[in-house]
Amino acid sequence: KAGVTQTPRYLIKTRGQQVTLSCSPISGHRSVSWYQQTPGQGLQFLFEYFSETQRNKGNFPGRFSGRQFSNSRSEMNVSTLELGDSALYLCASSLNGAGEGETQYFGPGTRLLVL
Amino acid sequence: AQSVTQLGSHVSVSEGALVLLRCNYSSSVPPYLFWYVQYPNQGLQLLLKYTSAATLVKGINGFEAEFKKSETSFHLTKPSAHMSDAAEYFCAVSPMGQNFVFGPGTRLSVLP
């Protein structure tokens, strides 16, 4: 099976712009979670989507949003970018959700740099 | 709220030496526990997972971890370090109905 794929791998934006990141989960997986990884804050949970519905949400401002399509592919959007949004954004997929004790399989991440 | 602590943000061992990476979690109810490894410029790869079937869990690349409820610990070990083990290691807990909570990570360096 193909693994989790994320596009693009690298992105450079300027403050105030918006960005959309894409994640394709492993075939058959219905849960997609997003994480932000920074040197200072480590890995922080953004949100989880399951069957096109947001099921869990981390403690991030409303500028961070996401959605999931009927084929389980997911996108996350960050509006009005700030310098502090520079990070590695990781997507992870699982069959029914991490809260069920399932393994999450991670993609390679999208590295976002905000100038 | 669940939390995970990993003692030592950076651990150095010599090639061939024992690797011990520490993980403690805060929960009165044992959650699901995971160890992931991250190589530079890559995502996270699962090393092993505890699901209450056995307290000693064997993973990939010769790693294993022991769940100790009395100590709320899930330390990761490998008998003999290899240069290719140099990476960052994350312990994570998965409380029922909630998403993963990751520890801060431990960077492992392997010295020749």
Walkthrough of the structure:
The complex is a heterodimer of chains A (115) and B (112). By secondary structure, chain A is mainly beta. Chain A contains no helices and 11 strands. Chain A has strands spanning 5-7, 10-13, 19-24, 31-38, 42-50, 53-57, 64-68, 74-78, 87-94, 105-106, 110-114. In chain A, strands 2, 4, 5, 6, 9, 10 and 11 form a 7-stranded mixed sheet that branches. A 4-stranded antiparallel sheet of chain A has the order 1-3-8-7, with no helix packed on it. Chain A starts with a strand and ends with a strand. The relative contact order of chain A is 0.32. In chain B, a hairpin with a 6-residue loop joins β10 (87-94) and β11. Helix content of chain B is 0%, strand content 50%. The chains are: A mainly beta (115), B mainly beta (112). At the A-B interface, β5 and β10 of A face β5, β6 and β11 of B.
Count the helices of chain A. How many?
Answer: 0
Average pLDDT of chain B, rounded to a whole number, is 91
* Strand content range of chain A: over 45%
Helix content of chain B: under 10%
SS strand fraction of chain B = over 45%
Give a brief description:
The complex is a heterodimer of chains A (115) and B (112). With 115 residues, chain A is an all-beta fold.
What is the element layout, followed by pairings?
The complex is a heterodimer of chains A (115) and B (112).
Chain A: E1 5-7, E2 10-13, E3 19-24, E4 31-38, E5 42-50, E6 53-57, E7 64-68, E8 74-78, E9 87-94, E10 105-106, E11 110-114
Parallel strand pairs in A: 2-11
Antiparallel strand pairs in A: 1-3, 3-8, 4-5, 4-9, 5-6, 7-8, 9-10, 9-11
Chain B: E1 4-5, E2 10-14, E3 19-21, E4 24-25, E5 32-38, E6 44-50, E7 56-58, E8 64-68, E9 73-78, E10 87-94, E11 101-102, E12 106-111
Parallel strand pairs in B: 2-12
Antiparallel strand pairs in B: 1-4, 3-9, 5-6, 5-10, 7-8, 8-9, 10-11, 10-12
